[in-house]
Amino acid sequence: RKKCLLCNNLLMIVAASIMGCSKIAQSFEMILIGRFMCGVSLCVPLHHQYVGEISPRKLRGFANSTSSFFWSLGKAIGQISGQRELLGSQSLWPMLMASCGLPALVQLVTLPFFPESPPYLLMHKGDEEGCKKAIRQLWGEGHHQAEMDDIMKEKATMKNTKILSVLELMKEQAFRWQLYMIVILTATVQLCGINAV
């Protein structure tokens, strides 16, 4: 999880750099490439997964809702800083385009000090000691056996579950309608008016 987030931040910094240099290079194609790279990044699902897994059970719902909050906050800050009086002027718009790299840079610098998610360490790596160490680092000293037991129950449940590849998921008849729904909702989210709001 953590490595994937770090790689994703590198992608965002490269995308921001490409968009920021588009005016110097006099290339609108660089903006298109940068925006495509931003779209390909996995920020939102990775944030949900990592933050949900490192949070104590009683704060998990709150932690998962931070993604929506920061997404809305980012849109609002983008709209405000895009005004002509701020970064929306003829000379400063490349800085506005490159500003998406700033949160990625902050996360790239701070994330190495955070541990890997405890469920990932225990369920996928089989590292029980690493899991306990990560739990103590995240949640402090104390008795965390209930959380360890929950992770072990989830691991036992996962043993009986078949993991599907993307191609197998697309071919599976039982998930067809759910897949259609997700694709339609994701593809049309830009048409819902949130940008105008």
Automatic annotation (TrEMBL):
Q: Membrane topology per the record?
A: Multi-pass membrane protein
Please tell me one Gene Ontology term that the record gives under cellular component. Answer: plasma membrane
Please give the biological process terms from Gene Ontology that the record holds: D-glucose import; dehydroascorbic acid transport
- Cite the entry's keywords alphabetically: Membrane, Signal, Transmembrane, Transmembrane helix
GO MF terms, alphabetically ordered: D-glucose transmembrane transporter activity
Is Membrane one of the keywords? yes
Point out the signal peptide segment: 1-27
**Name of the protein in question:** GTR5 protein
